[in-house]
Design a protein that fits this description.
alpha+beta; elongated; 23 helices; six-stranded antiparallel sheet; 25% strand
């Protein structure tokens, strides 16, 4: 405050001195102008003005001295600034404050060079506004001295106009560095106090500890913020009296709390109690309070100072700990697993360990000799060695052993021990003992079952596996899978790529494509046949089936691999024999066809020859003049008779392959015929990986037909479909129903090679697309269908394969 008053005084003196300086300059100007007047006329006036000037100069000099001393004491300097000319006038103290010598010519650039870089832009903006509108100045900023020292200055200046009307400033610059330093120190002390207070409050909040002061005379209480929070109140509620506290204490604890307080006042001892309280919200908290008594010089108690800590969480934690200990004890009992600890001073066993060993906890934990006596004789030596190594090396262990209870019962136990080290100091061992008798017996049974399973897999050449094809991780492989692929099970884990490498080069793309499709669609797969190449060049035929676990990871499959090499060889041998049989049958059919042709030629030759003879006779009788018409007519009749006889021969030939005559037709169920042929051709379809699927309308009525001939129709069409798919496998679908005209509609569809371009010729006799075909199958089929009053045709599928369709009448009797 004093420095500020000195600053104002200096400002006033500065303004006065500058005004006097202006007046003196005016007098000097007047004197100079007076010298231009004739001497005789101005002598008296000049002497008087000179005397006034000397008086004014003396007064001005005295004031300057006062001002200079005041500036030095207050670290405040004056300045004048003519804005238009840029002229500056500085006092000595101004030079000292800004760090310049008296010989320095003050300029605006010189001043701005001293201004701190962070304040320069702000002051340049103030300077620009001041030069434009002539506003007064009042600002603080920093300056940087030549030696790097930073000062704080306060500048106050008043804007005015000189005699020419130009803008000028008169002002004071004060060094306020010491004041700023004092303010910063004061602020630092204040911050430290605030931080200390905040830390104290934070400590109270974190520890849930509040303090309180009880005035024993007025029964009023002073609480810290944390005490208010503990009681669920706010500091805005003001002082709390004892009656309000009494109401908030749990009724069951109220008497004990105040009895403790009265005893502390009477005896002077520290009050210490725990009790419950109810917040205004109804929430119950548990607190722990400590208090000391304060006495005046006469020894009379006048005040009690204390703390209250909210221990609700601690109490709950203690309750949780007790509950956890109970749960642990119960869990050990249910899991048949107990805990133990040993050191040089003591041995601890949980109750469950005593139960496992059949011992009484009242007798305490056994010593080493007693412990080893409880171990099965066959395991005792190894257990003693394990304990010796554990103690010598201070290392942990895990063992399974048998123990013998006092009643003679043998139990299997699993013991785990780990060394206990605190601050690099060995303290002893802690561990667990678990009764694994049931588990051990089940394990032995499981091992036996696994041995049976491994033997069964070896006998049947079926191996089981579990693999994640996406990650390449093999989860399980039976020994038989190793052997099927030519690996030794003793080699240990084998990467999945090595199994891929055994695939036959011709089969590998199809196998990998099937696997990738199954993984992508997350579906099961069944690769019915593929080959692998063993290291010795042997080729095996395998089948693998994989099941995707939808609840598992992507690419995770379990499945089996079956060695079908022997079955494949048997099928190949059976196929060779079947082919032989087919070749023989074909030769028989050719021979039969030759015989049939010879018989046909023999039978037809006679009527044809007779017809030719009669025709020639007829021509001769007609050539007579006049023609002998009667004899010609008789010859023509003989030609007709012989022609009919030839037709009868042809009809007899048709009846040869037309197995059922109209008089042999009966009401038949077409669905039964389809099922019979499906069963009959099932093995053939399975051998070529073909699935036969039926979509039959159960409401289709029976029809009048020759059962044998219809069997021949289905046999021909289904065999053709199987032959079309035997290289690739596929699906054969049979559908039945009624068409809009009320006729029975049958379709047989395959996914094979499809139809040739000349579709209309496939039903012609002796036209075939198969190397060993006779070209009679579809021709005979069409004849049978048409003989029953039906129609047959074929179409190409949109995808792969072809479909043969035929219709048969339902109600009207079929015609021959």
């Amino acid at each position: 405050m004093a420095s500020f008053l000195i600053f104002l005084v200096i400002l006033g003196l500065s303004v006065g001195l500058l005004s006097s300086w202006r007046r003196n300059r005016k007098l000097v100007a007047q004197v100079r102008s007076a010298t231009q007047v004739p001497t005789g006329e101005r002598t008296n006036e000049l002497e008087k003005d000179n005397e006034d000037l000397r008086t004014a100069q003396a007064e001005l000099q005295r004031r300057w001295q006062y001002l200079a001393e005041a500036q030095r004491l207050s670290h405040s300097g004056t300045f004048g600034w003519k804005v238009r000319s840029g002229e500056f006038v500085w006092s000595d103290e101004t030079y000292r404050i800004l760090g310049f010598t008296r010989e320095t010519n003050p300029t605006l650039d010189l001043v701005f060079d001293r201004i701190h870089p962070e304040d320069r832009d702000r002051l340049q903006q103030i300077r620009d506004r001041a030069t434009q509108n002539g506003m007064d100045l009042d600002m603080e900023h920093r300056i940087v001295m030549a030696d790097g020292v930073i000062k704080h200055v306060h500048v106050v200046a008043h804007a005015g106009r000189d005699d020419s009307g130009d803008l000028e400033y008169m002002g004071v610059v004060a060094d306020i560095t010491e004041r700023k330093t004092a303010e910063e120190e004061l602020q630092a002390v204040s911050r430290d106090l605030q931080e200390s207070k905040a830390w104290l409050e934070e400590a109270q909040r974190v520890a849930h500890v509040g303090y309180w002061v009880w005035d024993l005379q007025t029964n009023h209480l002073i609480w810290s913020d944390e005490t208010y929070r503990i009681f669920g109140l706010t500091a805005e509620e003001g002082l709390i009296d004892l009656d309000k506290v009494r109401e908030m204490i749990h009724p069951d604890d109220r008497e004990a709390v105040f009895r403790t307080a009265e005893e502390a006042i009477r005896s002077g001892t520290r009050a210490d109690c725990e009790h419950r309280l109810f917040r205004p919200s109804g929430e119950m908290r548990v607190v722990h309070s400590l208090a000391d008594l304060k006495r005046d010089p006469s020894g009379r108690p006048y005040q009690m100072f204390g703390t209250t800590q909210d221990i609700t969480d601690r109490k709950r934690a203690e309750q949780d700990l007790q509950r956890s200990q109970f749960y642990l004890k119960e869990g050990e009992r249910l899991a048949h697993m107990g805990s133990w600890a040993s050191s040089d001073l003591d041995i601890y066993w949980s109750d469950e360990v005593y139960r496992i060993f059949g011992l009484n906890p009242r007798n305490g934990a056994p010593n080493l000799e007693q412990y080893l006596a409880a171990v099965h004789p066959d395991d005792r030596a190894s257990m003693a060695e394990t304990i010796r190594v554990m103690n010598e090396q201070r290392s942990g262990y895990e063992v399974r052993k048998r123990i013998v209870r006092p009643d003679g019962e043998v139990r299997y136990v699993r013991c785990v021990a780990v060394p206990l080290v605190e601050d690099r100091v060995f303290k002893g061992f802690v561990g667990t003992t678990m009764d694994v008798t049931e588990h051990e017996l089940l394990t032995q049974e499981l091992r036996q079952q696994q041995a049976y399973l491994a033997e069964a897999q070896s006998l049947t050449h079926i191996g089981s596996w579990a693999t994640n094809f996406d990650t390449g991780q093999i989860l399980h492989l039976s020994d038989e899978v190793f052997r099927l692929h030519g690996f030794d099970p003793k080699e240990g884990p084998i990467p999945l790529e090595r199994f891929y490498d055994t695939l036959h080069p011709e089969d590998k793309p199809a196998v990998m494509a099937t696997l990738e499709n199954a993984i992508r669609t997350r579906t099961d797969y069944d690769i019915r046949e593929f080959r692998i190449c063993l290291s010795d060049g042997t080729i095996r035929f395998l089948r693998t089936i994989g099941h995707h676990n939808r609840s598992g990871e992507i690419g995770e499959y379990v499945g089996i691999t079956v060695d079908i090499t022997e079955r494949k060889h048997a099928e190949q041998e059976r196929e060779r024999l079947r082919q032989l049989e087919a070749d023989l049958a074909h030769i028989n059919r050719v021979n039969m066809l030759g015989e049939l042709a010879a018989a046909l030629a023999h039978e037809i030759k006679q009527p044809i020859a007779a017809s030719i003879t009669s025709a020639n006779a007829c021509l001769r009788w007609l050539a007579h003049n006049p023609p002998d018409l009667e004899r010609a007519r008789a010859a023509a009749i003989r030609v007709e008779q012989e022609g009919n006889r030839a037709a009868d021969v042809i009809n007899n030939l048709r009846s040869f392959y037309k197995k059922g005559a109209p008089d042999k037709r009966r009401m038949v169920d077409v669905k039964d015929i389809i099922r019979e042929i499906t069963v009959l051709l099932g093995d053939e379809a399975l051998r070529h990986s073909i699935t036969i699927r039926s979509e039959l309308d159960e409401h289709v009525p029976d029809i009048l037909a020759d059962r044998v001939q219809l069997q021949q129709v289905f046999m021909n069409l289904m065999l053709n479909a199987i032959e079309a798919m035997k290289e690739t496998g596929g699906e054969l679908t049979i559908r039945s129903g009624l068409n809009p005209e009320g006729q029975l509609f049958i379709s047989i569809s395959d996914t094979g090679v499809g139809l040739p371009l000349e579709t209309e010729r496939i039903f012609d006799a002796f036209h075939t697309t198969k190397p060993q075909g006779t070209g009679m199958g579809l021709a005979i089929t069409r004849s049978i269908v048409e003989s029953h009053g039906g129609r047959i045709w074929a179409t190409r599928n949109q995808g792969a394969g072809a479909t043969f369709h035929f219709t048969l009448p339902v109600e009207a009797e079929a015609h021959a």
